[in-house]
């Protein structure tokens, strides 16, 4: 035994240290086309290395499995049986004895080894897991190891490597092989016969068939699902559910679907593997596309630093608390503590659709097999360990009656295993009182659900058991049935959720070549339309999910299936969708979020049961091989080195060799390849099985035949396709699997370099996607795909950008501080800058108001760009409780202010700080990549985001208001008391008095959202009670968004239209120098020219032609209709469309002004409102005289409604002026669908000839009819008016 003591931590007692292991032998020696990866197998067979024991310790054999994923994504499974053998070498015994003496001399009795919590201490993970802290170990601690008194044992492993996860079969074969060596009597044949048999004479079962082969003592059965069934998964899902509980498992499953980083944590390798494989098999029809290492060997812990999604398993050391575990990044991490049944979830992640009903259905399946689904502590989010957003699922009603049973069961932490339940049942059956109770409950019709379920479970087991099946086979059958039923429940969720996915796949390329070439630039899936078709509750989850790599790959496979053979999972999925369509025309259930249960649970379990009950094939029995006499002897209790020569070659042409079996197997294998495996796994099936005696052995399973020909091009992927699959399909796919073998610094550097490249590419793709989506219509005209982006989708994209930045900032960290690497860097920066600031007094906004120029934008004092200031805004938000939350809010704020790239550049310009915080290979220290990354982020400045304002709706925000008078025409000041009220999409500020003679004020108010209107007015007091205002400017002091509210009119009695208050409509101001690179502005608000031209202020104002007026009306109505066709969350302000520039009111004002005799010589100006008032007065008088009695009843009603509305508007306490009143009448008429009925009344009124010229549009019959028809089109929509418009109107 050539193991050298290479031990990391010498303060451990020698027996607790771990030593380097090595592969002792492997059979066959090699397979040309499938090289044996010695380092990987060595590492995964004994992830902790070699360990020693004495007779005082527990030495039970252990079983675990592992998986090796190759670069191309193909997988190989390994199954390992680890046991302890007595050490016979006197040198090793005396070496251990000496180590103990040295250790005892060094360690003073008082010192206790403290475990450091650094990442390195994980690397020394020990084999303590298997030895409970029994009294035996304490006696050993006193005595240690003494070669004269103790027997020394060392670990050894047998490993079988296979192409498919036949976990149960391999486990039973290995344990029988080990039993043969330890048994008192030798087995009937030499060990070589059994190994040779499984390597060369046991074929893979054909799809949909079962196979029986013979181990050393008893037969072993394995089965393989048919082509239309879910693929083979032999790891017991029941165990995963029992360990975590249904609720937690569904949450981890959701994190996996959303491609977060998932870290499993347990002391038991097999548990890590069971949970990892369990979760990934539930993903059907999707496949995990990123790093997948269910067992992470101690020497590879630096992989936790990978800035990509991963699913890894980490072995916990006994006594190591979760809090001691320092992980490089946790912002997006789902931490699964398997042994303690609890999980920690990332912040704010969406729930799986119909989660509660799904958990309910899973619980019922588990219950039908006598298992409880309610294990597991409630999940914890990162906010605080105590708060549990989704606590343990409530017990289904019918289980509540079983209180007595509940108390008999263990608490949730111990995972109520079936064994305990059997014990409970025995207790119940043997207890006469309980038996009587049961009889009584039966008579009264009460059922005791749990007992019945248990009894049924046990009954089926006992009846089937009589069919000559062993208990192990029973257990296996039960597991297989439960496995497939649980998987079917998940599969049916996807079948209903994605039943119509095909309709949204965009098939744009004429052939495979051109598709592969343009893959990166193309839209393959119409995301916006797909989402708009889904039920509302599903959207948060689906909008995230369709952005993942696994979904993209699924769609890629779908598109490629027109030229290639369908990927197996996709084929099964499509078949199911077609079948579902036949049975259920999906129209009625479409868009409904009601839960559809899985309907094929019974038949799926039956298929498996039939295969296992009726065996299709039996393999050749093990037989004597051509071995020399005396070969194959071994000492009892010691696993020997086998005869390599007989195991290196397949069966020769002797009487034992059945060529048929091999041929059949080759056929199966070829078929399997074409039908059951992924594109890039052509050679996956010719596989390994190696008995690795580690100290270890390995068996390779293979065929004597040469490897099958690669499929002809029609069937298989072309070379470019394979290359594409490996490179382009995923960002960082080449990182999907760390190379387990070579760990030289050069290789680690190379891996990190790949990470850097991957991150940069991902940044390029994400920013491009955000730009294209956001630029909307403009981008589509340039040929960039989807026309609109939903707010939901925008939010998803921004969330994934936040996640990318977190991953970039956590790559290559020297020391981790806090959960968010980005925020911790910002805090370091802030601390340094504030030191510098103390030396120079700081002023956030220059307090001295500059001399105002008449130009609007100059009147607002400039807002200083300050990274620190933005951080302080975020720090003062009490709503955000965590660092991750603060970092995300800061990113959103910077994005909204178009400063993200600039801020990050400033942050990284402090190179001394970056060097202190990051290792040399970190992304942030690669100069060229960093520059490109900042450049990609800079491109986001081309579009307007409101991703901060729209998300943090409850925070207090300081606003600054500046009122700009028109100096030339008016006293800048007024003696009256002015007031202002600012309204936005989320509310209004209420009326605020403006201090006298002050034109600028600031106020704090809960977030108003995007600003829509400002009401400005005064109380008409004093001598100079007239005020000519050019515009009002309002700025959000956190985001810097500035809005301009044009006015251009007088406020005062006896001037203009006599208005003392005006409602002004806002528009967002573009900071200077930015106009050339941005999207077209939002709907603009009324400009000064329009306002002045309508009034008498300048009679020389611009007069539109009748054609322009009609076009303007059509355009304004169109805009309102478009507004209602957008998803509700993205509609923006209706007020702007009703009252802003180019709005309905503006267009109708022009219509009514056309041919209006407004200016009279030596008389007051006449307004349109005067005409309306006179018309109403005429109607009322006519009504009293009885002229209207003979008109049709509906007309009379319309007439009354018009009079009522006009009088209500006139009697309002507000002084809104005549134009304001006309605006209000139009808005109310549009809201209450009365405008088209009022128009004829105004046209019929005899006064019209006095007030309008003959050419006026209003006197043109056909034009008026056309106008009525246009206005009727907005009747289908519910128009709601902003409070600022209708304040004080009593109808």
TrEMBL record:
Which UniProt keywords are present, listed alphabetically? Answer: Guanine-nucleotide releasing factor, Membrane, Repeat
Cell location: Membrane
What superkingdom heads the lineage? Eukaryota
Where does the secretion signal sit in this chain?
none
The annotated regions of Low complexity compositional bias extend over: 105-146, 375-396
Give the residue ranges for region: Disordered. 105-147, 373-400, 650-673
Question: From the UniProt record, which GO molecular function terms apply?
Answer: guanyl-nucleotide exchange factor activity; small GTPase binding
Residues in UDENN domain copies: 3-565
Q: Which Pfam families match?
A: dDENN, DENN, PLAT, RUN, uDENN
In what ranges is there compositional bias, type Polar residues?
A: 650-663
Taking every annotated instance into account, which residue ranges of this chain make up the domain RUN?
792-953, 1135-1284
Which PROSITE patterns does this chain map to?
DENN (PS50211), PLAT (PS50095), RUN (PS50826)
Q: Which GO terms describe its cellular component?
A: membrane
Per the annotation, which location comes first and is thus the protein's main one? membrane
PLAT domain spans which residues?
Answer: 957-1065
Hey, which family's this protein in? Belongs to the RAB6IP1 family.
What's the name of the protein? UDENN domain-containing protein
Q: Which organism is it from?
A: Perca flavescens (American yellow perch)
What is this organism's lineage?
Answer: Eukaryota, Metazoa, Chordata, Craniata, Vertebrata
């Amino acid at each position: 035994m050539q193991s050298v003591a290479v031990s990391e931590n010498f303060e451990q007692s020698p027996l607790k240290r771990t030593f380097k292991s090595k592969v002792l032998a492997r059979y066959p020696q090699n397979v040309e086309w499938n090289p044996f990866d010695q380092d990987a197998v060595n590492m995964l067979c004994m992830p902790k290395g070699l360990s020693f024991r004495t007779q005082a310790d527990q030495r039970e054999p252990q079983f675990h499995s592992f998986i090796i994923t190759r670069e191309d994504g193909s997988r190989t499974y390994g199954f390992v049986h680890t046991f302890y053998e007595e050490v016979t070498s006197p040198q090793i015994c005396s070496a251990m004895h000496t180590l103990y003496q040295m250790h005892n001399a060094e360690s003073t009795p008082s010192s206790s080894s403290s475990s450091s919590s650094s990442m390195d201490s994980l690397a020394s993970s020990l084999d303590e897991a298997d030895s409970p802290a029994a009294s035996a170990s304490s006696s050993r601690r006193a005595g240690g190891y003494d070669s004269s008194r103790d027997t020394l044992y060392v670990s050894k492993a047998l490993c079988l490597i296979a192409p498919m996860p036949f976990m149960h079969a391999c486990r039973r074969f290995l344990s029988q092989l080990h039993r043969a060596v330890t048994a008192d009597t030798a087995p009937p044949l030499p060990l070589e016969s059994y190994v040779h048999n499984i390597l060369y004479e046991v074929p893979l079962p054909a799809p949909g068939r079962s196979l029986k082969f013979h181990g050393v003592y008893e037969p072993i059965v394995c089965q393989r699902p048919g082509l239309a069934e879910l693929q083979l998964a032999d790891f017991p899902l029941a165990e995963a559910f029992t360990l975590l509980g249904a609720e937690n498992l569904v949450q981890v499953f959701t994190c996996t679907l959303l491609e977060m980083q998932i870290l499993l944590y347990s002391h038991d390798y097999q548990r890590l593997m069971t949970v990892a494989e369990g979760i990934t098999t539930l993903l059907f029809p999707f496949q995990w596309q990123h790093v997948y290492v269910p067992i992470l060997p101690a020497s590879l812990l630096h992989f936790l630093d990978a800035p990509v999604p991963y699913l890894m398993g980490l072995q916990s050391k006994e006594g190591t608390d979760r809090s001691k575990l320092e992980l490089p990044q946790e912002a997006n991490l789902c931490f699964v503590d398997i042994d303690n049944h609890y999980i920690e979830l990332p912040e704010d992640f969406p729930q799986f659709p119909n989660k509660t009903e799904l958990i309910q259905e899973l619980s019922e399946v588990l219950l039908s097999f006598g298992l409880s689904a309610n294990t597991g502590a409630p999940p914890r989010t990162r906010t605080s360990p105590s708060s549990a957003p989704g606590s343990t699922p409530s017990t289904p009603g019918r289980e509540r009656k079983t209180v007595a049973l509940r108390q008999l069961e263990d608490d949730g932490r111990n995972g109520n295993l079936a064994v305990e339940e059997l014990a409970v049942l025995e207790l119940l059956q043997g207890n006469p009182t309980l038996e009587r109770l049961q009889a009584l409950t039966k008579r009264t019709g009460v059922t005791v659900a749990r007992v019945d379920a248990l009894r049924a479970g046990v009954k089926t087991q006992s009846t089937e058991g009589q069919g000559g099946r062993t208990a192990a086979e029973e257990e296996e059958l039960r597991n297989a049935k439960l496995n497939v039923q649980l998987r079917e429940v998940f599969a049916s969720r996807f079948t209903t959720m994605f039943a119509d996915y095909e309709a949204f796949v965009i098939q744009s390329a004429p052939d495979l070549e051109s598709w592969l070439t343009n893959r990166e630039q193309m839209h393959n899936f119409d995301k916006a339309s797909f989402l708009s078709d889904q039920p509302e509750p599903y959207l948060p989850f689906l909008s995230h999910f369709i952005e993942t790599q696994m979904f993209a790959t699924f769609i890629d496979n779908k598109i490629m299936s027109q030229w290639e053979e369908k990927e197996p999972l996709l084929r099964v999925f499509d078949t199911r969708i077609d079948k579902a369509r036949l049975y259920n025309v999906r129209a009625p259930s479409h868009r409904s979020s009601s839960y559809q249960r899985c309907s094929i649970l019974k038949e799926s379990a039956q298929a498996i049961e039939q295969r296992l009950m009726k065996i299709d094939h039996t393999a050749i029995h093990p037989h004597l091989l051509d071995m020399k006499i005396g070969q194959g002897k071994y000492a009892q209790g010691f696993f020997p080195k086998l005869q390599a020569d007989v195991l290196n070659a397949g069966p020769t042409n002797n009487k034992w060799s059945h060529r048929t079996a091999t041929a059949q197997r080759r056929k199966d294998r070829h078929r399997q390849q074409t039908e059951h495996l992924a594109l890039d796994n052509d050679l996956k099936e010719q596989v390994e099985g190696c008995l690795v005696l580690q100290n270890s052995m390995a068996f390779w399973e293979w065929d004597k035949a040469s490897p099958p020909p690669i499929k002809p091009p029609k069937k298989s992927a072309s070379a470019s396709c394979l290359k594409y699959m490996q490179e382009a399909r995923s960002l960082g796919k080449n990182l999907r699997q760390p190379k387990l073998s070579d760990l030289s610094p050069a290789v680690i550097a190379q891996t990190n370099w790949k990470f850097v490249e991957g991150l940069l590419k991902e940044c390029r793709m994400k920013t491009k996607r955000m730009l294209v989506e956001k630029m909307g219509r403009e981008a589509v005209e340039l040929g960039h795909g989807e026309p609109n982006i939903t707010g939901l989708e925008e939010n998803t994209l921004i969330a994934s950008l936040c996640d990318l930045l977190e991953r970039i900032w956590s790559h290559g960290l020297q020391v981790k501080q806090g959960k968010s690497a980005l925020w911790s860097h910002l805090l370091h920066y802030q601390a340094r800058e504030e030191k510098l600031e103390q030396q120079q007094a700081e002023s956030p906004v220059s307090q001295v108001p500059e001399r105002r120029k008449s130009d609007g934008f100059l009147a607002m004092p400039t807002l200083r760009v300050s990274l620190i200031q933005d951080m302080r805004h975020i720090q003062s938000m009490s709503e955000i409780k965590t660092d991750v939350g603060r970092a995300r809010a800061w990113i959103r704020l910077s994005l909204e202010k178009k400063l993200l790239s600039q801020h990050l550049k400033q942050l990284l310009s402090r190179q001394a700080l970056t060097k202190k915080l990051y290792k040399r290979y970190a992304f942030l220290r690669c100069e060229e990549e960093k520059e490109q990354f900042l450049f990609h982020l800079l491109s986001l400045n081309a579009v307007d985001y409101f991703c901060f304002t729209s998300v943090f709706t409850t925070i207090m925000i300081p606003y600054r208001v500046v009122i700009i008078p028109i100096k030339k025409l008016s006293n800048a000041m007024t003696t009256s008391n002015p007031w202002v009220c600012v309204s936005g999409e989320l509310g209004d500020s209420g009326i605020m008095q403006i201090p006298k003679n002050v034109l600028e004020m600031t106020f704090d108010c809960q977030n108003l959202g995007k600003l829509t209107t400002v009401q400005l007015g005064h109380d008409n007091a004093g001598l100079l009670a007239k005020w000519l205002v050019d515009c009002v400017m309002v700025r959000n002091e956190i985001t810097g968004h500035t809005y301009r509210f044009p006015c251009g009119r007088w406020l005062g009695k006896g001037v203009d239209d006599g208005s003392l208050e005006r409602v002004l409509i806002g528009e967002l101001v573009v900071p200077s120098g930015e106009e050339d690179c941005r999207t077209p502005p939002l709907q603009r608000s009324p400009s000064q020219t329009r306002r002045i031209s309508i009034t008498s202020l300048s009679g020389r104002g611009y007069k539109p032609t009748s054609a322009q007026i009609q076009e303007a009306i059509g355009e304004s109505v169109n805009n309102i209709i478009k507004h209602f066709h957008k998803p509700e969350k993205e509609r923006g302000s209706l007020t702007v469309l009703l009252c802003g520039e180019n709005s309905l009111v503006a267009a109708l004002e022009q219509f009514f002004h056309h041919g209006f005799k407004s200016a009279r010589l030596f008389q007051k100006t006449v307004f349109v409102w005067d005409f309306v008032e006179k018309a109403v007065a005429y109607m009322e008088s006519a009504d009293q005289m009885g002229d209207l009695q003979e008109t049709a009843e509906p007309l009379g009603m319309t007439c009354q409604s018009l009079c009522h509305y006009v009088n209500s508007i006139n009697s309002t306490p507000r002084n809104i002026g005549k134009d304001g009143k006309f605006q209000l009448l139009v808005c109310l008429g549009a809201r209450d669908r009365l405008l088209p009925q009022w128009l004829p009344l105004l046209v019929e009124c005899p006064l019209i000839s006095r007030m309008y010229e003959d050419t006026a549009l209003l006197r043109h019959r056909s034009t008026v009819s056309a106008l009525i028809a246009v206005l009727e089109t907005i009747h289908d929509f519910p128009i709601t008016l902003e409070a600022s418009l209708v304040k004080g109107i009593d109808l």
